[in-house]
Write a structure and sequence with these properties.
single chain, alpha/beta, Rossmann fold, UDP-galactose 4-epimerase, domain 1, 2 domains, six-stranded parallel sheet, two-stranded parallel sheet, 11 helices, globular
Length: 292
């Protein structure tokens, strides 16, 4: 099986690339410059066909929530039109398409964790673009697979959007205290665990929508507090109970449960704390460099 992956410079895409190859499968990097919207569907078909992909996992996305609010047309182009283009090309080539979405699509209608059958009421342009992309993809193919992930962590410590690494750097450079949002809740989710689930679902031939998050939810404050704790940094983390000023009206509850995964026989994904502890332990040398 040859699995093509977009977004291999990101947290999930880079880890999925490693995991696929570790499973003895072929992993192919899809070059973003080779499937531009302006080049049309025919070009995308020819490019994917030339790579011999059996599956395409679309991890790449415009994830800058503030920028998406300022430039919604760019967001829709990046996250909806491009995703629809790739999904169309895959459908015509009989290639399975996997789209990475977010639990943020559920919005703010509940105080408890969301499952796959809850209504989607996104509160930001970014999450609305993810919802629209999901709808477009599923309308094209009954074989497409949608993965809704939580607050992703893991990957190379030097990646710009590595939340764990950035909070550790912030703590090291602070004067002994950092602040974090105590009002927003979600599931910190390890990219290693998500990658394992994606590979298993693809291998078993599953389609449709699946939540894929580590077990347990917490506030941003609780998440950051555990990062600092596991990294053994002597810094106080203060909870802020008024929302941080931002354009994107992010839901206060992005937490979810893996209802469908549990019903089709998948054992519960480990608690997020266990994944975070493992990741930070594996990053000891990178953390030492931050202190130096």
């Amino acid at each position: 099986m040859n699995i093509g992956i977009t977004g291999t410079n990101g947290l999930l895409g880079s880890e999925l690339l490693i995991k696929v190859r570790a499973c003895g499968l072929k992993a192919t990097v899809l070059d973003r410059c080779r499937f531009l919207i302006s080049d049309g569907l025919k070009n995308a078909i020819e490019y994917i066909d030339s790579l011999g992909c059996d599956v395409v996992v679309h991890c790449a996305a415009n994830t800058n929530l503030e920028s998406c609010e300022i430039n919604p047309q760019d967001c829709y182009s990046d996250n909806v039109i491009l995703s629809e283009l790739l999904a169309n090309a895959c459908r015509l080539l009989n290639v399975k398409f996997v789209f990475i979405s977010s639990t943020g699509v559920y919005g703010s209608s509940k105080k408890t964790p969301y499952h796959e059958y809850d209504e989607l009421l996104p509160t930001t342009v970014h999450h609305r673009s993810k919802m629209l992309a999901e709808n477009a993809i599923l309308s094209q193919s009954n074989d497409a697979l949608i993965i809704r992930t939580g607050w992703l962590f893991g990957g190379d410590f030097n990646l710009q959007k590595n939340f764990v690494a950035n909070r550790i750097r912030e703590a090291v450079l602070s004067g002994g205290e950092i602040k974090s949002d105590g009002t927003q809740y979600g599931n910190p989710t390890y990219v290693k665990d998500v990658s394992d689930i994606i590979i298993k679902l693809v291998y078993d031939g599953w389609a449709g929508v699946f939540n894929c998050v580590n077990t347990g939810s917490t506030s941003r404050y609780g998440y950051v507090k555990e990062i600092i704790n596991y990294a053994k940094i002597d810094v106080n983390v203060e909870a802020v109970h008024t929302p941080f000023p931002r354009l994107a009206k992010v839901s206060e509850n992005e937490s979810a449960v893996n209802l469908k995964l549990s019903r089709i026989g998948f054992k519960g994904i480990r608690p997020w704390e266990e994944g975070l502890d493992e990741y930070i332990r594996s990053s000891t040398e990178d953390i030492k460099k931050i202190f130096n």
